[in-house]
Amino acid sequence: MSTILVTGGAGFIGSHLVDGLLQLDHRVLVLDDFSTGSAENLEHLSQHPKLRVVQGSLTRSALLRELVNEADLIYHLAASVGVMKIIEEPVQMIQNNVGGTDAVLRAAKRRRKTVIVASTSEVYGKSVQLPFQEDADMLMGPTSKSRWSYACSKAVDEFLALAYWQQFRVPTMVVRLFNTIGPRQIGRYGMVVPRFLAQASQGQNLTVYGTGQQSRCFTYVTDTVQWLMRLGELDSAVGEVFNIGNPEETTITRLAQKVIEVTGADVKIQYAPYDQVYRSGFEDVARRVPDIRKVEAATGYSPRVALQHALELTNEWLNAREGRRAAFVEKAAA
Length: 334
Prior knowledge:
alpha/beta, Rossmann fold, 7-stranded parallel sheet, two-stranded parallel sheet
């Protein structure tokens, strides 16, 4: 049994990682400021004897140092994410991402604790060298487009993590996540799958931004968690970068069609120009496909949940949650 710290552990991916770690009988510490995460995501674990949840910021150095010193391994998932966050709060996003990662690495340096830093497929930028390989060149857009500030902030996170390993021998590794989906994900910050499911459940037409021909690869959260946990056990993964994703590619229009099929909603697809949703001149990426041979070879694990099943599972969770909420409101009214 190890003691493991998960920053951002009340978030969508973080809370599922906490579930998985506790199932393996680890002691888990969670540090989260609940700015985008939710206590609801960990509510089912509120009485778990091996879980400690601390509400606080990565900027509280004494608190962070205390938790890092207790931990054998740190998963650094805390970050500002989502297209809407990038557009609306670019300064805070850059400061939170780069400053938070630096704070975690500085705390880990004292006792050379292992840190797994969560990055993103966004760091590949506008590259067309598909599928994306970990050692491929990045191709960012201009600094005048805030759209690219998130990708650049996460690239700096990666440079920092690997520099701490190279210069200070702090064991670090980087994982680039490709569109993880599943229960507990919300659409508030621009995530497409929960947004589509919510629109369908409310009988609204699904709004596809742009032409809908842009494609993505979606990874069910249990697959992401399996890779994260397995990498955390590998000394050979230190100093490395890994793509984590399901290479099953789909256009956003086809995704919307699948959501309609899964939900059975009597709705249609409508299209909205990017300039109508985001700021003028917003740039998107045509395709984003991971090469996962490296992580498969390192962990012996391949994705097990196809997109169709992932959407079905997520929709079941959403319906169950809405059912519980409706029952609560009805009971309270009575």
